[in-house]
């Protein structure tokens, strides 16, 4: 979305490339950059299906909710701004909003307690490039909201995700930084808003990888989604005028309708039956690349590193005081 000059080494990248995850290979789905969410959902009858989505009342989340509703699904939206959500969702059938603040563990538990068995969980909400802010636990807000909040929510719903898909939004912004497992909350290093965002987006991808490994015995499959560069959303609210201008002058901008497409593809596509633990973009499994700046649909090795994914999971359990019930 924005530009950064971080030079960081991928943890374990050389060994990972030698033992590369062969699942992380494009399947030539027939869809692509210009595909829309509505196009992907065409022909799907979701009557009787229940889907929960965080932040499903604005931006690409709202388009995702709209398309799923039109296909017949019951959609439950977790919304930090409950009044805004009620207004935005008023015209959609079988869509309801429930308050949810992903930086507040109590709010997450209250939201999770109200959900039924799900066919799909879409971890869509997020913040980007925020100034240094900490939640009530002292955790850096981008890591807490984008990763730990969705980690806690997913674990709370584990018993209601049998034979389900979990789709978590990541970003090509993962290129800005790997996860610093020794200092994820910027307690000992200087804060950089783009490094913090990149760390949280790398965490989203690593979370999907490890969740898929752990969840397969329940029939749960997990996917990480890079929606593309979309400018017409609230995500830009923390960016400076110069950063917004640079973003608007960059290439590869998607519409909201295109931005929601890969989420819908990962949630619904029969092409992904028997697959999971992959980073997806442009309605396909993304290629592994060494330079995401040159290929925004690609994924860096550090965001799909199996050992890093396991270490992040352990750290996340410690930080949230939760454990996956295997």
Number of helices: 11
Mean pLDDT: 91
Compute the number of structural domains. Answer: 1
Largest sheet: 8 strands, mixed
Give the SSE order as H and E letters: HHEHEHEHEHEHEEHEHHEEH
Superfamily (CATH H level) name: NAD(P)-binding Rossmann-like Domain
Strand order of the largest sheet: 3-2-1-4-5-6-9-10
Structure characterization notes:
This protein is of the alpha/beta class and 326 residues long. It has a single domain, classed as 3-Layer(aba) Sandwich (Rossmann fold), CATH 3.40.50.720. The protein is 35% helix and 13% strand. The chain is built from 11 helices and 10 strands. Strands 3-2-1-4-5-6-9-10 form an 8-stranded mixed sheet, sandwiched between helices. Helix 5 packs parallel to helix 6, helix 6 runs parallel beside helix 7 and helix 7 packs across helix 11. The longest helix has 23 residues. The N terminus is likely disordered.
Would you kindly provide a brief summary of this structure?
The protein is of the alpha/beta class and 326 residues long. It has a single domain (13-320), classed as Rossmann fold (3-Layer(aba) Sandwich), CATH 3.40.50.720.
Overview features:
Rossmann fold, two-stranded parallel ribbon, disordered N terminus, 326 residues, 8-stranded mixed sheet, alpha/beta, 11 helices
Secondary-structure map:
Elements: H1 13-18, H2 37-41, E1 50-54, H3 59-70, E2 74-79, H4 82-89, E3 95-99, H5 105-113, E4 120-123, H6 141-156, E5 165-169, H7 193-215, E6 221-226, E7 229-230, H8 241-248, E8 253-254, H9 256-259, H10 261-268, E9 278-281, E10 284-285, H11 306-320
Parallel strand pairs: 1-2, 1-4, 2-3, 4-5, 5-6, 6-9, 7-8
Antiparallel strand pairs: 9-10
Helix pairs in contact: 5-6, 6-7, 7-11
């Amino acid at each position: 979305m924005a530009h950064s000059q971080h030079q960081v080494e991928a943890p374990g990248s050389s060994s990972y490339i030698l033992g590369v995850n062969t699942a992380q290979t494009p399947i030539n789905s027939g869809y692509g950059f210009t595909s829309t969410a509505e196009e992907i959902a065409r022909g799907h009858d979701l009557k009787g299906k229940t889907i929960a989505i965080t932040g499903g009342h604005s931006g690409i989340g709202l388009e995702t909710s709209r398309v799923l509703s039109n296909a017949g699904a019951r959609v439950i939206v977790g919304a930090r701004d409950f009044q805004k959500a009620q207004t935005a969702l008023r015209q959609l059938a079988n869509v309801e909003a429930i308050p949810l603040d992903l930086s507040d563990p109590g709010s997450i538990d209250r939201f999770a307690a109200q959900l039924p068995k799900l066919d799909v969980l879409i971890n869509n909400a997020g913040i980007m490039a925020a100034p240094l802010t900490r939640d009530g636990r002292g955790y850096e807000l981008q890591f807490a909201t984008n990763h730990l909040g969705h980690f806690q929510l997913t674990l709370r719903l584990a018993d209601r995700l049998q034979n389900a898909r979990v789709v978590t939004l990541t970003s090509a912004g993962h290129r800005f930084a790997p996860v610093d497992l020794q200092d994820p909350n910027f307690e000992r290093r200087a804060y950089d808003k783009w490094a913090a965002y990149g760390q949280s987006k790398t965490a989203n991808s690593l979370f999907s990888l490890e969740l898929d490994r752990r969840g397969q015995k329940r029939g749960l499959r997990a996917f990480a989604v890079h929606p593309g560069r979309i400018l017409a959303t609230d995500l830009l609210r923390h960016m400076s005028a110069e950063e917004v201008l640079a973003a608007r002058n960059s290439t590869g901008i998607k519409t909201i309708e295109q931005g929601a497409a890969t989420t819908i593809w990962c949630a619904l596509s029969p092409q992904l039956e028997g697959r999971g633990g992959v980073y997806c973009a442009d309605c396909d499994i993304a290629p592994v690349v060494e330079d995401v700046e040159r290929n925004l649909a690609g994924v860096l090795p550090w965001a799909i590193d199996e050992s890093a994914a396991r270490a992040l999971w352990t750290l996340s359990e410690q930080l949230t005081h939760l454990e996956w019930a295997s």
